[in-house]
## 1
Amino acid sequence: MGWEFIALFFGAAALGIFILFIIFIIGLLKWLLQGYFLFRVSEIKDYHLPWLSFIPFGTFYIGGQAYDGNILKKNSFDPKHLGLAFAIIGLVLYLMGLSIGDLVITYLLMESVAFIGIFTAYVKQPVIGVLLALLNVVTAGIAAIVILFLCSRKLRNEHGSDAFYQEESTNTFHNNSSSDSHPNDPNLNRDI
């Protein structure tokens, strides 16, 4: 009877370690994907210190900067100060959560509140931005990855296509009469 109990104990311990390992891998993938897409968004939007996207409380700093012009009136506060306020408030709430015991929930709620600015910038409506933040809480941060991916793609297309057309216009040979024509005009570089 004693050996069966020990075998059951070690089997349960091995299963528990395996489940914790899977949760750790999923959490690591979530952190890397969210950090990467947040970095891309903050780099395109020219936020201060975009590399903070990979540091846990740095995401609050980046998210706070997105409030300028999306939630609050543009230039009513310095975006760096907004980001710093979010990072400090998030850290204080997180440390308060240490005593309460709801660390993950506190961090996830504060991260979702910080991302409301980015979500609103993506959908252009504050109410939907708040609903996306609530969805982020319910899905344990998976919604943020999807929205940051879509936002980075949208920003890349908006800013990338403009850069493409600017580069294309400087590389083409313009004749005297073709400077006002469209870049896709078949008669653009034609000698008539």
## 2
Amino acid sequence: MKLVMIPGLNGNDAFFIDFMAHLEIETLFIPLPEDCPQDHETLAQRIAPELPKEPFVLLVESYAGSIAPYLNAMPDVQLQGIIFFVSLLAPPNKMLLELSKFMSAKTVFKLPFAEQQLASTYLNNDATPEQVEFVKTVVENIPEHILKERTEVLKTIGNFPPQPPVPVAYVEASNDKVLNQRAKDSIAKVYPGARKYPMEGSHFLLYTKPKESAELVTRIFTEFTS
């Protein structure tokens, strides 16, 4: 059985490479399409044809979390379980999202102490200078119109279709300063039976702790499929 992975706001595998190298599971990585509206329902419709035709487990990271309920509601999608990885099903701190209205990522990172702020607030000083620089580069390379559209979508997520029963797990970073408490609690509200798996780290947990993340995801995958 495959583990299907859909990435967060950056939409590509930049933060997944080391994580996937530690996995001993058959995987399928699906990037976020950019040639369509960026709301989660449209993204789900575009992604659905790429999914396996047999049962699989879905891992959704951060921004991609709200794609999962739309996929789960599709009768032909054979979901055996959902792993929400530092993800959300309700808007995060809207003040953070307002920045995209006024500045591009490249402009933000030119501000004084921007890299220090990235390292402390978003990476909890868990990352090496090289990792901080890599995160900065990845964010800067998100097309500006895509970044703005995705951050706008985050303000209004919710109101999902009725959910068929499915095993759900969510990995929560203990020091996540990107997601507020409402966002952190949102998965359990949509899926009351969801099991929480806390890990020490920042919102970029999957990138900064790839080995530990892979070990936990493997354990959850095994629980879902055994």
## 3
Amino acid sequence: MALRSRSGKLAIAGALTLVGVGGGIAYAYPPGTPMEVSASAAPNGDGTADVTVTVTQVNPTCSTRIIIDGVEYAVLPPGQTSIEVPNVPAEEGRQRVRARNVNCAEGDKEHARADFTVLNGAISTDSDLVTGKNVRFELTGMAPVGAEVSVTATRLGGGSSPEPQSDRVDRRGKAKVKFKFTQSGTYAISATIDGQSVASTSVTIS
């Protein structure tokens, strides 16, 4: 498997992903600053993602093992702190990256972990799309955990639209809202987090 060092592709990945930060064990390098690891993932559209892993405050005399969901993908040589791991299986919900120092020339070993989510935002519903009934929408591939997702339903061509609804992203990257439509027609459903669009779809209400 070819591994690539950090590149310009991260700029794309960073817009799509959640970055998680985890603390190390009691040892620290430099003193008082535990190792930390973060990860971001760019989905490839085929069930895999390219994951960029970065470690900070790492002992420069150690190599660093990079483990994603229990699988070791790389061992960074001393001094290297970032790598892009291609074609990592992308699962729904949280995934975990671990970093562990090995082969240290001096100082104590450390480890750190972090959770990240492969963002592939989507909105779906299995409700009856009729007026006068609650229509439930499920949002998936959302991040970060705990963020407020604002969802609007706008009738195309004008007319009556329900009030915006919101929910908090859960640990599986999901959120749920419901609307009651009073007028038939086609509606644009749009979700935003902090003003940034994260998913959209359209439905026709009869």
## 4
Amino acid sequence: MYVLADASGSTVRDGFHEGVHLALPHLVHLADERDARFCLAAYGDDAGLRVALIGAGDLTVIPRIPAGGLSSLAAGLRVVAAAIEHDTSQLRSDGMEPGPPATLVLAHGLGTDRDEAVLEARRPLAGRLHVSAPGEDRLAFTGLGATVHPMRLGDAGTVAASVVTAARQAWPASGSTQ
């Protein structure tokens, strides 16, 4: 499971930022139950990997992701696509044939990128992209060719429960073991 979390400045509202951090250990546990791998990336001030692909049972620390900046969803999608390409190649060179990976985007709102940039960046993830977003943005995210899962805002616990539910829904739909 590749998780891409929005860490832009707006995420400090509505319990989003704290809720995502509250949900992450549960997502790792979900991956561990499936004897799968986990990867965490974020986008905000910059986009980058926070946890490189690792067996979920081997993950001992989940880093705190600071909130700040604009939300370049395109940059985040490019980071995840590059990580998947690298990880798939590495696993194959190690004699493993990974299943199709699922990417779960946790978005507080629409990115600040041009639509064309986001569509181009999501192209390598087509068919494996899941987005969990609040109500008013869900329809817009369907334009990404993503499966969209609802996210409820409010307090951190509400957001975390929505994120975990979205991950449970995304996982079997992807057929992923990664």
